[in-house]
Structure formats: structure tokens, C-alpha cells
Amino acid sequence: MADLVVKPDPFTGEPSALGQRLHAVLDGDRVVGDLRRYFGIGLPPGAGVFTGGRFEHLAGGGDRRQVANRFTAEDLIAVQTLSVTVPAPVALDLLEGPLGTQLSELLRGIPADADLSDASGVADGSPAYRAWSLLESQYKVGWVIAGKLLARKRPRLLPVYDRVVRCALGHPPSFWTELRTAQRKDDAALHHRLLSLRQSAGLPETVSALRVADVAVWMAHPATGHRCP
Q: What's the start-to-end Cα distance of the chain, in Å?
């Protein structure tokens, strides 16, 4: 899908529309409280905590060294916390079939310890883009599920991008490039701001800057049922 086609892009000049919209979300009075509520910080167990708060933490995370380069059953459950389900035939192929083997080879070429603001390996033709394209083409997977699967495996590098985020931040020709450009501008000011919000909300360091942005956007989305007006 054209949303994720990533080409080299400068990171100087005026803020992009995406960057402006994201800064507007982060300027909101409720952003720290929203982050704490989403991840259940300071709340008793079971007190209306969002299931998505377990996305990156379930079973120690999808990017931990032992499983960083292969999809596991825990990854398939983790994406369900973000309200999507991998079709059973594709899930079995990921766990036991050639699809899993192909993606493992691609994951080995995608750094697990790099932030999007620092990385250059998300361009068209890169292992990250090829992995997304391969997943997106599978039976009833599509761009949303493909993105969430990869965000589980590389939470610092590859963002969650779904219809809520697209509605709130816009529909650029290349979401990865636009977000990377926004994060790199002014000596990575946006990236550092997201990390500062993480600290202010008391979130663990395992919550990436990209997920801080995603959750802030999702919680601030004004449309009923998070539907785009």
C-alpha cells in the first residue's frame, strides 16, 4: 500500500503537516494523564486498563534477543491487544511454515536496537519494507495488521499505523519517511520530547518513543468510536 512506501527524504525546512499535527496532540493538557491511564500507571489491577498497554510487554516483548528474529504465538496474541487478529492460516504459516522462514530472514536485516529517528534502514527495498510488503499481501492481513506485527518485533523502529493514526495525523505518501523526518528535525527535538513525556508519565523504558506517540494520538482522537469523521 502506498502509505508505507519509503524513499529518502530531507529532514530540514518547515515542519511537515504530520509533524505539526503530532506536536498539537502532544501539546494537549491531558497527554500525560492519557498515557498513564492507557498503561495503567497508578491504577489498581483490573481498573479499566486498556489491553493495548500489554502490547510491547507481553512475554517480555517481541524484540527480546531470544525471539527478535522470529514470530511467536505471543506476538500473535500481542497484536490482538490492539484490536486486530491474524487470520488462522497466516498465523500457522508464521509459526510453522515458509512465511515464518522468509520473515525471519528479513528480520535479521532489521536492527532491533535502533530508533526511527536515527535509522536509515526503512527505505523502499529495505528488509523492513519487504517484510511489510510480504505481510500486507497475505490472506486478509492488509496494511494495518502488517504494521502492528512489525511494530511488535521492532517497536523502536517501526510505528503502529492504523486508521485512527491515519485519521489524526494525515495520509502522506510515505508515513515512515514523514514520521522519521519529523522526529529528526531540530536535532531530534520531537524524539526527545516523546522520551520526556514517557518519563513524566512514569512509563518504563520498554515503551518506545513511537508508542508514546501512537498512544497519545489514539487517546486524543475525538471521533466517536475512534472513527475518522
A: 22
